[in-house]
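Title: Prediction job returns without error message
Component: structure pipeline
Severity: low
Priority: P3
Assignee: unassigned

Description:
Job completed but the reporter wants confirmation the result is attached to the right record. Sequence as submitted:
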Amino acid sequence: MKTVAVFFGGKSNEREISVITGLYCANLLRGDHRVLPVYLDPDGGMLFGDAFGVEEFRTGGGTPKGLKRAVFTRGGIAEARKPKKTIPIDCALNCCHGGMGEGGVLSALLTWYGIPSASPDLATSALFLDKILAKDFLKGMQIPVVESFPLTESEFVAGGWRAQAEALGYPVIVKPCKLGSSVGISVAKNEEELNEALALAFRLDRAALVEKYLAGKRDLNIAAYRAGGEIVLSPIEEVFSGSPILTFGEKYEGEGERRHELPAKLPEETAEKIAQMLKCVYARLNIRGIVRADFLLSQEGEVYFNELNTVPGTLATYLFGESLTKARALLNLLVEEGMRAETEKLTLESGILSKPVFGAKNGAKRHN
């Protein structure tokens, strides 16, 4: 039986959602694999144990007691007190929402320690956690995005954003650069509201994106993964909201009635355009694992790529089928794909360090 490590938690505004996703995936994979849940403590380090329940994260500062502190080793992890006793990991699954977990740090560590992963790599993770960089990348691929401008905290204090906002035209939407799940997002109808929205954004992040708000837009989601070299797409989902933007409460807390339609009722041409945009990005970045892309459809029928989530909630399994049986089969497929992925290539050495010029005493200090 193969060992699958499910990583979740981390220092992020979405840590609690990550706990739900991580335990959901760990429980579904049990029986088919030996599952090793690994919790990234917000204070640093990793913890693992035989069993986790959501209720264990409700008290004690959010960290269950009685867990073992872990460290990475070559090809796996080990208890910190017994670093030479490696627990080999056949595949890792990243369920960390936001922060360094989703932003590429965990992906990089897995690669460094030679642990196969069923999740997106460093480059893709870092790129799409940053909304400003993601916009620039998509523009470079000639994929349509909503008009916007980036803003740092120092630029906010300087005040030049007022002219930029006027040129963009109100209303606008303010998005903290590296946050997800609608945390810190606000819609501003005038300069006063924009000032307040930016002040909130900079309490949470170092940069923000000010984007033209599309009144009457439709919110559309679609997921993708790779199987046997082929990119597989889910049906397109439309999500309805009672607010100008889909809020955190509507997504996760049952605030109001979260309504959706799957598959969405769309013109065939629009659905095909959305599918091709996601396929293009997935193929260009050679993405591994499951991702969810969010699109906006304007009242005029224009499609805009909004963002790509490299660790979507419950890994977007519901978009491929509502049943837990289908979700379990999909997670198993992702793990199998991850175990087949190459983690290392040949590393060449030039032999320059063995040349006589570097062999003498203080040879490394030569200047000519």
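Comment from assignee: result matches the submitted record. The CA atoms of residues 229 and 337 lie 9 Å apart.
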